[in-house]
Amino acid sequence: MVIPASNIVVGPYAGDSRVKEAEFVKSSARARDCPKDDRPEFAVLGRSNVGKSSLINALIRRKEAALTSKKPGKTQTINHFLVNKSWYLVDLPGYGMYHNDKIIDGIANGEKQSEKYNFALVFIGLFAAASQSARTDWSSFTKGYFLNRDTLVGVLLLVDASIPPQKIDIDCANWLGRNNIGLTYVFTKCDKSKKGKGGRPEENIKEFQETISSLYPEPPPWIMTSSVTGLGRDGLLLHMSQLRNYWDNEATMSP
To answer: Which residue intervals define the domain EngB-type G in the entry (predicted)?
Structure first.
């Protein structure tokens, strides 16, 4: 069985995916301040305003669990939500690129860039649209979280399906892949397309998949979602349940 609107096969590790309860645990300004227990966790990552908070709110069905805002960069800490008292959903700061205090967002809108940028600048760069005083070194902040968090099951990399592929998202996926960090592409805003910014969500998703096909010997799992219609919610939770159960099994088998 394949989960609808995805390439994800339901396997033997799929289990109870219902969200019975969820609670905010803490915000951490540093990776080393994150909760210190052995519960598995999923990190939610993506460009600012890609719909991270909306997805989290939809998954756990609490309208104000994760603060949503039209202002990019609202999330500036690592925020842990405990689900069913057994696993964490982690809201990470949205990424963006800075140059003269302006976001340079990949190849958005087809704008030409006079200088060469790569994903290292995302980590050296700071929270999108955050104030100067609120900015911090993402290299030691979020990058440290990815590389040192032993309980990280995988990353939900959110990609806006209402616009054409963005270089910054592709660079992010490439960095995660090179560091052997498991990821699932979660295409957001699949219920709409933006005027003057490309084709329909299905066309943008296909173009994104074709662009990243050379980066992976096998395509990573992906799923289409919409926080407005609920598309993909149950399927994503089912996918997360089998990843979680597989992780638990491997942890039990490890010496």
So the answer is: 38-246
In 136-185, which residue ranges form alpha helices assigned H by DSSP? 138-148, 167-178
Q: Are 73 and 93 in contact (CB under 8 A)?
A: yes
Q: How far apart are CA 252 and CA 13, in angstroms?
A: 14
**Integer Cα distance of 217 and 163 in angstroms:** 26
Consecutive H or E run containing 188 = strand 183-188
Give the CA distances from residue 201 to residues 106, 174, 192, 211, 245, in Å, rounded to whole numbers and listed in that order.
19, 22, 7, 15, 31
Reduced to 3 states (helix: H, G, I; strand: E, B; else coil), residue 41 is strand
Structure-token pair, residue 193: 């397309």
Q: What angle do CA 57, 59, 60 make, to 5 degrees?
A: 70
Q: Which domains does the chain have, with CATH numbers?
A: 39-226 (3.40.50.300)
Q: Which 8-state DSSP code applies to residue 34?
A: S
For residue 234, what are its two tokens?
Answer: 């149950």
Q: What is the phi/psi pair of residue 89, to 5°?
A: -115, 125
**pLDDT averages per 10-residue partition of the chain, 255 residues:** 98 96 93 94 94 94 58 69 97 66 35 36 38 47 88 98 94 91 97 74 96 88 96 98 96 77
Global confidence as pTM: 0.83
